[in-house]
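Quick bug: GTPase Der output formatted oddly.
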Amino acid sequence: MSLPIVAIIGRPNVGKSTLVNRFSKLQDAIVFDEPGVTRDRTYKPAFWGDRDFLVVDTGGLVFDDDTEFLPLIREQALAALAESSAAIFIVDGKEGLTTADEEIARWLRQQPVPVLLAVNKCESVEDGLTQAAEFWSLGIGEPFPVSGIHGSGTGELMDALLTHLPDTSLIEDVQETRVAIVGRPNVGKSSLLNAFVGEKRSIVSPISGTTRDAIDMVVERGDKPYRLIDTAGIRKKKNVEYGPEFFGINRAFKAIDRSDVVLFVLDAVDGVTEQDQKLAGRIADEGRGCVIVVNKWDAIEKDSTTIYEYEKLIGDRLHFLEWAETIFISAEKGQRVEKIFDLIDIAAEQHQRRVTTSVINEVLEDAARWHSPPTTRQGRQGRIYYGTQVSTRPPTIALFVNDPTLFNEGYRRYVERQFRQSLGFKGTPVRLLWRGKKVREMERGSVNRAIKVRTKV
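Here's what came back:
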């Protein structure tokens, strides 16, 4: 049993995303004073009373215009209604009743879903009742005056909503694997999400910047749930103007931060660009698990050496992701898309893997036996006393040594390679913390001082 869904419907710029932020308490739907910012349907977890549910934000509905993305937005809104237990129709109390509101209300009355009417932008309680009164004529039912900005009136709206939602207390809480789909514009991120889901979940268009917000979708494979997060294409900073795209890119970075594994999508036709290198560095810095997905592989003319040449190109230009697995796919044709889940599972498992101290020290002993730590001209040699894992996501190992400055970058990379050769860690970065005697002495001194202070008190 999955969580019930509540669709948020309305014409452009009535405050749908503001209310979604209010309902979900996440404040991460893009809110900008411009029509058409939300295009796909985006899902956010929400809670009220004793119920968990999902709110799905949809694009602004316009019925008398078939230009640009508007027909696709209508298609997305209809899909959201089809899977919802209830819908909330948002109108603008300040602007008053419009012809567009009447068209949407007429359309909603034909849908087999209970609909609640929320009159937004009613910041004043007294004025709100007056503003809401004219919307009785829509034939949807009682209009609830609310303020998405201040939150007034939303409690009464949510209480009424609960009467239409099923009991969620019996839903089993299963840990999801969070997967962010990241890449430059037009590399096929939304096509990949749609291939995973098996439906047109995201608007796919050759126009750069189609996806604005981070789009969450939960899919199950076997008994494992995956939260897939499609993100806005990330362009060079100098090419991004302040506005919806700016916020969309920030959401993409946040999606990386809250994910377990990142699907880093490359365009096989374009190869590895400078922007791809910067994104790869961002993924490595954030410490996320990663799978490199080379999309549009069907568009490449191939011979027996093509794939090896491409793997070498990726290894050379994305060397800081050398630990990530690479898969070559066609999202549009569905080629090898299912195999990505196997790589996600490996990366997620390794990302949260914990290794015992005894095993870590066996690896360190073997590493020192095969390649002794470097010695300075003055005869000082580095010594590794012991190591222990201090955290996961990503696996982080503290190495206690006599002096970290005695270990050059080459030897540090050698130790990391030894860990990977002996323990695996495929698909995840491994962080090594080199801690010297002075650090430990300072820590012990701080503890001793704290003990003395407590004794005096």
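Actually, after a second look the formatting is fine. Residues 5-162 form a domain with the Rossmann fold fold (CATH 3.40.50.300). Closing.
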